Amino acid sequence: MFGSLPRTVRLLDAGAGAGSLTTAFVSRVCAGNEGVRSIEATLYELDPAILDALSAAMRECQRRCMDAGIRFTFTIHHADFIQEMSARLADDLFGTTPPAFDAAIANPPYRKINADSAERRALRSVGVETSNLYTGFIALIQRLLVPGGQLVGITPRSFCNGPYFRPFREDFLNHLELRRLHVFESRQAAFRNDSVLQENIVFHAVKGRNQPVEIVISHSSGEHGGNITETTFPFAEIVHPHDAEKFIHIPSTASHATAKATMDGLGSSLASLGVTVSTGRVVDFRLKEALRKEPERGTVPLLYPCHFNGGTIHWPKLEARKSNAILDNSETRPWLVPSGVYLLTKRFTSKEERRRLVACLFDPDEVKAKWVGFENHLNYFHANGHGLDRTLAVGLYAFLNSSVVDQYFRRFSGHTQVNATDLRALTYPDRDTLQAMGREVKALNLSQDEIDHLVGKHLHAHR
After folding, report:
1. Where do the domains of the chain lie?
2. d(Cα 109, Cα 126) in Å, to the nearest integer?
3. CATH class held by domain 271-462
4. Mean confidence (pLDDT) of the chain
5. Overall fold of domain 8-255
6. What are the two backbone dihedrals, phi and then psi, of residue 433, each rounded to the nearest 5 degrees?
7. Please, which pLDDT band fits residue 286 given cuts at 50, 70 and 90?
8. Average pLDDT of span 234-248
9. SS3 per residue for 226-274
């Protein structure tokens, strides 16, 4: 993915492992990246068990370069990249100036970092706010590149959307020009042995402030020798110019492109429909004392994803491990909502579920209560804290369960999480169209084909 390189390349490989990325870089340069005369490699690796393999790989790189008439030198730092570089970048009076690099290649470690962890504090000292090691690595690497310096990274695609990564996306897009994205469509293939449960991407970015007019996006399964498809998109379709969240949308298959065209034709936001979506308020471990396995006097229904049953709620579900009820008292009341018609979606779906977006109707006629608790793993659609108009809710139910929304959603979400922020960012049909759909749905046990036919017909008529 690297473009043309200077005569002397100062290369950074942070989290180098056994050195396979630097080895790949070297073989590519030796095979004919004209003009490179010297490579100065700097590698960081914390795991002592892998240092011998890393040294051996670098000596092999030296031999290859010598045969190709290229000078290769390397320095291996057995150190914590985040701690060391944060300290140097923080411009400590007695510290040494940070190094500068022309190229960086990275497959950083993926791990959540807590708000009070040493890594988080170190990153914060240089103005990086992020909740995962891999984005911390990328943010520091970006700061070490010279203008025009290039970065190729293999990371999960989770940074492309979601509220937690917004500060990172802003930082990334303000300082790096995103030139190329490659998506591995299979979660398993590329990193089968590493228990990586996210879709992974490879990106090429250049240090600078002017995003390109177009960007190349390619796809492969990740299986060895699999086909690679490549398409050029206007950059404004990948990062929408006026999107405050700075989501990075990654289209893939033809159905994703069709879904995008359909969704772009819709003009309503949730707010214009008079509808809000919120995350379920009941965080069960905080209200543990108030939870009850079975409904009893003085309790109200508590709903989890396990209560989803096709399009409706199955409650109580006594065989489930989760609680079915919560006490209704002065402590819990602020976390409950008044009974009414609500549309619920799961915040997390399993990889086996056919759809990323799973919506279900809460019907007060089916579950009798004055108040109800929605647990934190659910999102709920409501009208200013109260239930929705039933016909509108059923129309929304059909729309959100349609394949077109699922495909659109997958364009910009590589993980199995659906946050309220993501649902607010969607465009929706207008109220009349949603109510027309709602009137046509006689029962909520429709097949996927029936839902898609209904939604397709109304959206087509709407256009």
Report:
1. 8-255, 271-462
2. 20
3. alpha beta
4. 89
5. Rossmann fold (3.40.50)
6. -65, -45
7. very high
8. 87
9. CCCEEEEEEHHHHCCCCCCCCCCCCCCCHHHHHHHHHHHCCCECCHHHC
